[in-house]
Structures are given as C-alpha cells and as structure tokens.
Amino acid sequence: MINVLMTNFNSKNPPLLLWGEVRGEVDTGARLKPSPSPSLQERRTYSGSSLSMVSAFVILLLAAPCSAAELNLEPIKCDPAQVLGADACAKCHEYEVKQWKLTPHFATFESLHRKPEAKAITKKLGLSTVKRNDTCVKCHYTQQQKGSRVRVVSGISCESCHGASKNWNPLHNDYGGPNVTKETELAEHRQQRVAASIAAGMNNPANLYLIARQCLACHTTPDEKLVNVGGHTPGSRDFELVAWSQGMVRHNFLRTGGTSNGTATQAELRVMYVVGVMADLEASLRATAQATTKATFGTVSAQRAAGLKRKLHEIQKQTDNSHVQQAMDAALHAPLKLNQSEALLSAAKTIGEAAFAFAKEADGDDLATLDALLPQPNAYKQQEGQ
User: Fold this and answer.
1) Distance CA 386, CA 383 (A)
2) What pLDDT score was predicted for residue 128?
3) Partners of residue 151 on adjacent β-strands
4) Cα gap 94→166, rounded to integer Å
5) pTM
6) With b meaning 16 or more CB within 10 Å and e meaning fewer, what string describes 116-129?
7) Using one digit for the tens of pLDDT, what is the confidence trace for 59-112?
8) Could you give the CA distance from residue 313 to residue 319 in angstroms, rounded to a whole number?
9) CB of 21 closer than 8 Å to CB of 355
10) Handedness of CA 183, 189, 190, 196 (dihedral sign)
11) What integer pLDDT is reported at residue 383 of this predicted model?
C-alpha cells in the first residue's frame, strides 16, 4: 500500500519522513542564417493583410493571461486540425529541424511500431498497431488532419512540445511589419508578440514551465491501465529537465544566428533545474491521483513524487523564493495515498502555478547557491537508452 507519515511540521525545515515511505513492489524495467520574416503576401495568407494581423495581435494581447491563475496550466493536447507540420517550422528554423531529425523523437515514426515490446503492449491492451490508437499516439506521434482524414505524419515533433501552431504561427512570425526582422524588432513588440502567441496556444520557451509541463505529461506515463495491464514502463524515472533537454534534443540555433547549437547560460540552467523539479512534482502528483489499486503505477508514481519533494526541499534550503515556498507548502500537504485524488490534484495545481510564476520572474543570477544540485554536462542525455 502507498503510505505516508503525516505529523505537525515546520514547512521551512521539515523532517524528511514527512515525505513518507512509499512501500510496495516497483517495476523498474520494463542553421543557415535565419530566414527573413515572412513576406507581405505570406502574412495575407493568414490574416488578410498586415494591418489586420496587427489588429488581431492587439486583440489577442488584450485577452492574454497575465498570471498563472488565468492560464490553463494543463498540458496542451496537440489538436490534429491545428497542426501545420514540421515543414512549416523549417521555413524559419531549418537547423532546428535538422537537429530534431537526429533524435529518437524523430526516429520513433519509423521504428517504434516495429519494436517487439511495443507490439506486446498493444496486444495486452487489445489495441491495434501502435500508430492507430490514441493511447500510444498521444505521446509517441504527431497527427495532422487534412479534410476529414486524420493521420500520423511524424514522431514527437515541434508541435508536440510547442503546441499545434495554426493559430499562433502567424503571430510568432510577425516582428512588427513586412520589413521588420527579428534583429530589428522592438523590445516592446517582442514582449507583446510572445504574450499573444502564448494566448493563442504556443508553449513558448520564454516561460520554461510551458515546455516542461509538456515533457512531463508523457515522461511520467500518467496512464494506470497502460502500465499495470500493458506493462509499459512507469515513466522515465531518471528524467531531469536540464540533463534531458541540454543533450541531443537541444536546438538553440536562434541565439547564435544559426552558426551553432547554442548552450544555455549557467543562470538559465539554474532556473531550468528548479522549474523542472516543480513541473515533475506536479505531474507525478497528477499521476498518483489517478491510481486506483495497489500496483506498479500507483507505487512508482508516489515514489517519484516523494523523491521530488526531497529535491524541492534541497532547493528551498538554498534559496529564499516565495514561489518555491508555495510549492513546498503544497507538496507537504499532498498525501501520497490511494483515494486522495482531490487533495493531490489541488496540490498539483498550486505547484504548477508556482512553477509558472517562478519561470516568469526568477533571475538565475540570484540562484548561484543551486549550482551543486545541477547535473554536469557529461551527464546530459546524448543518445537513446543512455
């Protein structure tokens, strides 16, 4: 059974036992220089005219959420009807797409359905081929709708992480007029553009939480039947946002003007680490809330959440940040037990809001005390199975 010891506590320096003992069997197995901004004709393809584009931009901006409480923090589902496909991204992000094609995220399109373990899982679940059921497709593939037909068009793609782009792509590409480039865009316009694209459904890395939540929506495998009946591994148990995002899947060509795959600064990595821990804890609590039986899924999800509470406590000891404190307080009140879905989901929501706000406001230069907690570059994930 999933058990936790709860007593009176001091949230600033709680005893480790407050995170509980999770008992039970665990199944651990199983660039070219940037292209110029779109032409006026291309803009009209989306909006009728450059003027109407600006008008729509302002309207969306006025409606854009300004706080976590106003933003839907649930991971965004990739609507096939809104998917443009990787080729649309490659028009301006050629090197990023080339890097993507070197990763398992891309390769899964041609390889996953051929793997014996994938076939075994679908058989146990009574499902058809991996590419033709929602259980597998939602995390392993990208679907696109053309007319009335919906089909798988790629593996885990740009839009799997950044959101289906039909609505936000024209905003994301608009630097302020047909003759304005990314390099000459006004700072105020960029801020408005980012806010409007997020309001239109983009997971923009300007707020790292928006990306992290998408990663964890799949890397926690939040599906009890898939794990307990299908035998799917219960999430990527060694997932850590810095290590997994700064290795082979890194695609930071914009910051170098396309000359190389840029690396994040130490300040950026500090913020990334904290956001990753909070987003992972949120997702793990959501998964734990789904557990209905004493079995692998519930036990591993709760164990993962317990370990992340410890990580968050280590962060808290090294920082004085209200958002970290908010997340820690919520985590301490989250009972890692069966039949506690309401309390677990409430805590998860609070932690997600704290993570969003931290990602928005934190200054990594003030977080140097966290450096000892960060993974070293030699631990970054460079290949499948590492």
Assistant:
1) 6
2) 86
3) 144
4) 19
5) 0.83
6) eebeebbeebebee
7) 544 444 455 555 566 677 889 999 999 999 999 999 999 999 999 999 999 999
8) 10
9) no
10) negative
11) 63
DSSP for 213-282, please give it.
HHHHHHHT---HHHHHTT---SS-TT--HHHHHSSTT----GGGTTSS-PPPPHHHHHHHHHHHHHHHHH
Residues belonging to the chain = 386
Reading the block at residue 281, the tokens are: 């804890």
pLDDT tens digits along 314-358: 999 999 999 999 999 999 999 999 999 999 999 999 999 999 999
Calpha distance 349→362 (Å, rounded): 19
Contacts of range 35-39, beta carbons closer than 8 Å, 24 or more positions apart: 35/91, 35/92, 35/94, 36/181, 37/173, 37/174, 37/175, 37/178, 37/180, 37/181, 37/182, 38/173, 38/174, 38/178, 39/178
Domain ranges of the chain: 32-58+65-72+174-203, 77-162, 207-379
Find tokens 């700072």 and name the residue. Answer: 187
pLDDT digits (tens, 9 = 90+) for 232-258: 999 999 999 999 999 999 999 998 988
